[in-house]
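(Structure overview)
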Amino acid sequence: MNLHILRFTGGSKFKRLSAVTIYLVTISFCLSVFADPGLDEFNAGNYQKAMQLWTDELQKRPDSAELNYNLATLFDKGLGIEADESIAAKHYLKAANKNYAPAMFKLGVILAKQQDYPAAADWWLKASTSELPEAQYNLAKLYLDGLGVEKDLYKAKFWFRKAAESAMKKYDSLNSVLLHNPG
């Protein structure tokens, strides 16, 4: 294996660090910064523990779109707690206001369930600019059926096409990962 040697000057001394050492230090730092114990608990099915960890972290970072989205998901689906759509909507709204497209989509779903189609259309349109195929598809359905927006077959066709293209990009991206990382 051919390792590149990098030289860092520190006063009059030279320090040699291999690319592997730098890589390992970088990975360790990234894992410590981006580690999400709440997500680990969520994936293990320990929803109440995940909720506690995310709630505690949200006290430190109240503007975190991801934390608000994660908590909203627990309330929305009733995981580890009784489902509460109004609390879920509040957390989705906080995340959506930080331009977090999955939260925009979910907020639109809640609004559509409440038959507030104009508001659902607004959130799905915002999420659609992030190429979220689910939002694009739902927006197309609203235009097709004339719910919350003026019925417009051309806009419906446009958003159905965009949804298909975005879904294909997602598929291609996942397929590429699987092809390059078999087994």
About this structure: The chain is about 70% helix and 5% strand.
